[in-house]
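Checked the freezer inventory, then went back to the computational side. Two predictions to log before the end of the day. The first one is the construct we discussed on Monday; recording sequence and tokens without edits.
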Amino acid sequence: MGDADQISERLTKRIIAIADPQVRVRYLRHQLSQMRPGPIADLITVALHRTEARDGDAGALLLALCLALAHERSHGIRDAVVHSALDQGQLETAAFLQPRPPDRLADGPTTIPDFGKGRQVSLGERKSLARTHDRDLLARVIRDPHPDVIRILMGNPILTEKDVVRLCAQRPVTPEVLREVFSSARWIVRYGVRKAIVKNPFTPVDIALQLSAHLTEPDARAVVDSPELSVLVRDACRRVAGMQTLH
């Protein structure tokens, strides 16, 4: 993977020079759109191995790559990369990117928060409430099960990391809600948010895998000891924690 090593080093230097995480993702989306699926799979494999080996700069590249491929306009590229990774025998990379539901799903339908209006609030009203500057209302919006509401909420300027961690720690929570948080470059760069997502059994497995590589060794070990989480996620954290030979 000599070419992938060189591309990884080049992109890592450029990514580190870009302070804004959203700009990083846009830059990588453009770069990936000009690459073939096979080299992208090689690039992600290299970035993943380096991240699990505690290369912080490679971790920044890996996270930005994952966010770039998670964008709805990049789903076709992502799917092609998964197929190429499988053809090339890069099974870990394929599993890393392949969208898959959480191992655990809610037993029943999730409920819409009570906004104190004495009636069920429409989706349009809830989207409007996601822009509120009222902290009491915001605490209710955080429990909304609709991804469109959460997408708007992620851009609310009064939202704090503590709010987002509380949202990600909810059980049950719809997988689509956690995908929206994962897609938010503004918040997924926060370590507390990433950790809360990985530790939630309602998180889609592919997202948990993509974030596991960024955990500290103690937090990775805690995930390994959590029987409620996916075996794939626990195995990934076992590697991150150095509990077995890397690749």
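The second is the one RB wanted added to the comparison set:
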Amino acid sequence: MRTRIPPGDIPRRGARRLVLLVAAGLTLAGCHPGSEEAKRLRAACEAGDAAACNQFATRLQKGQHVLRDEARAGGLYGRACEAGVGEACASLGVMHQRGGGVARDSARAARLFEQGCGRGAMDGCARLGVLHLEGAGVARDLPRAAALFQRACDGGQSLGCAHLGALHASGEGVGRDVARAAELFDRSCGAKEALGCLGLARLHAAGTGVARNDSTAAALFEQACEGGETDGCVHLAAVYEAGRGVTPNFQRAASLYREACEDRNGEACFRLANLHEKGAGVYRDPQQAAALMQDACRLGYAAACPPPGRS
């Protein structure tokens, strides 16, 4: 005869089982090599090892085998930076740039990037170069940005190579040299830097500095998009829309435009609006098209804005 569990006991027994499972999970997590390493780093940091403080701060910031605590991470980065760890200065600079765990402060970020760069943190050099490129927290200075990107690139920092390639492609801050740009983009893309793949894709699409190759450009735009470069996703969508180097696929194009539009890319909103206007890859919807055009204009894409004098 089958034993029946009284209805009132079911929640209690289920809850007890859940508690046991959670406890077992926490026990296993505590035995994980990553947890042991985090404990070792914390102990070394408390004993005065600045490099260990920097590494433990990274784990706190990301929540790797410890509870995520950005504010505490910022304090440890600061301690390590004061002790001369360049990478800690650069990491704290990123936190001040984004305002995560610490106050948002572009000028403070710039000073920290400069400290980090001076102490051999190539990421600090590249990020300080971006600030000089954009004039954020520091004076806009393209030659200075180029020099910082060069230093970062020479030090093996692939983002620095990508940004330096972009300057050589445009001739801003350095002499225009598309062949050099292609070389830098290729090096950066080979190191899985999405911005480098995007730059190289644009050159292949235009046939500038390299042979024009639509298939190669499409593959590189795909890499850039997968690497998190929204502009790469927009270019990839345009490739699918036009069928350049790939089989035309309006649905794929619409999906990519939509994701980029949601990521606040004005051109993507504009192009998605055009697809809704035509009913290509999406349902035809003039009202949705008009709303997307307004979004594109608000995001600064001038082609989507009505001519002066018209609302």
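For RB: The domain at 141-228 is CATH 1.25.40.10 (Serine Threonine Protein Phosphatase 5, Tetratricopeptide repeat). The chain has three domains: 50-119, 141-228, 243-311. Let me know if you want it refolded.
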